[in-house]
Amino acid sequence: MAVEQRLIRGELVTLSTYADGSITASGVERATPVDPGSIRPFDVSRCTSRQSGQVRIKTGCNVWASTVLITMSFEADYNQTFSASDPVWVTAGSIVAVRYANASTLAGTYSVRNFGRTQINATASSPAKARLTLDVQAVGGGAATTVWLQLNVPTNTYSLGYSSIN
User: Fold this and answer.
1) Among 3, 89, 100, 158, which is most exposed with the fewest C-beta within 10 angstroms?
2) How far is CA 51 from CA 114, 140, 144, in A?
3) How confident is the model at residue 42, as a pLDDT?
4) For residue range 102-113, what is the model confidence (pLDDT) as tens digits?
5) pLDDT digits (tens, 9 = 90+) for 76-100
6) CA of 30: how far to CAs of 6, 7, 13, 53, 160, in Å?
């Protein structure tokens, strides 16, 4: 068996070629650096990925973040279209679906304020977005705050989908 790794459209792909000529491929998204001072992105993981022409279709992606006191997650499907002339440049992005919002807290209670796609298609100035927003109340009626977890699917960039929290 021969094993080769290639960077293909932002994913590190492992190609395994067997003696009978069959080939398997598996890929992992590579992290993308962000500008200093911007919100630190978190991984969007466990996606099933397939390519149809210039469109990468990601399904079953786990969007997840955890702080000391609260953990939030949801599942999402999204697409990104890549340039024919520059196969790692994203020319379009959209969020197809979100589901299975989940949260837990160690020191209080929470309620879901909203959950869904807030911008379905990316534009030149703004990524496609899906957001889970929670109102959190500390134990004993202490401090209350609002927190969110957001999936971002950008366009006109080399960046893949990423999540951010507040």
Assistant:
1) 3
2) 32, 51, 44
3) 58
4) 998 887 888 889
5) 999 999 888 887 888 999 999 999 9
6) 12, 9, 10, 21, 8
